[in-house]
Amino acid sequence: MTGDALHIGVSAERVVVPLPQTGCHAARLSFDNGVERLRLHADQAVHALLEARFGEPLPVVWSTECSVHVEYPLGSRLLRRTRPNTIRISTAIAWSLDVHGATADLAADLIDVRVGAVSFHGGVAHSRLALGRPSGLCTIRLSSAKELQITRPTSAPVRLEVAKGATNVRLDDRRFGAVVDGLTGQTADYQGVRDRYLVIVSGGADGLTVEALADPDRDGRPRRARRVRGCPYSPTAGA
Fold first, then answer.
1. Is 48 part of a structural domain of the chain?
2. pLDDT 10s digits, 65-77
3. 10, 15, 128, 140: which has the fewest C-beta neighbours closer than 10 Å?
4. 70 and 163 share a domain?
């Protein structure tokens, strides 16, 4: 079943959200009740705003202009899904990601898309977040993290701030064993640079990795990291 998710909302295995007729320079993808077993990636072949395939239990998807909301039924995270969910987003515009509720088993490849802001208002576990090159100060906000990997190009400076207890945290080649009162760390080239990442964890972190990786091409050869123009805004964690 295919649905064009407009204001009324659609619940179907395949959902296509078209580009607004008024145009769209930046979009937001919001998960209003958490997310689990999702592969999110930017695809140049997507000519709509978003294309998605979902497994049972199906969420409700609706959109208002350039904002897309995905809401899973309450208690759905306790049920076995028939298959992982897949969402492909357009690379033609900037995107921001906003998750309310818990996140688990998320694989988000945002290397080839312009990124605005990324905010996880609940705990994140067993997930991966791949980012491209920033333009300006781009902030990644997390409530708490367990077994989370965040990657970026080698040329992108980053600062990590964890407010509470942290164990098994790694920032590139720096490893932090167990810290009670939080920690801060940054790459040597962070200060005085315009284009950089700031990762803020307002709670605790266990098994958090923030590292630089080469950006391989499909044939396995290294390629230059693509610049991610964006960061039009960076909302607070409670926004």
1. yes
2. 899 999 998 866 5
3. 128
4. no
Q: Look over the chain and give the mean of its residue pLDDT values, rounded to a whole number.
A: 85
Report how far residue 122's alpha carbon sits from residue 138's, in angstroms, rounded to the nearest whole number.
20
Q: Exposed/middle/buried for 140, CB within 10 Å: 0-12, 13-18, 19+?
A: buried
117 and 227 in a single domain? The answer is yes
- Residues 9-37: tens digit of each pLDDT: 899 999 999 988 877 889 999 999 999 99
Q: Where are the beta strands (DSSP E) in 153-189?
A: 158-162, 166-171, 174-179, 183-186
Strand partners, 131: 110
Same-domain status, 195 and 125:
yes
151 and 54 in one domain?
A: no
- Closest by CA to 31, choosing from 59, 66, 64, is 59
> Strand 50-53 to strand 35-42: parallel, antiparallel, or no bridges (unpaired)?
unpaired
Q: 178: exposed, middle or buried (C-beta count within 10 Å: 0-12, 13-18, 19+)? A: exposed
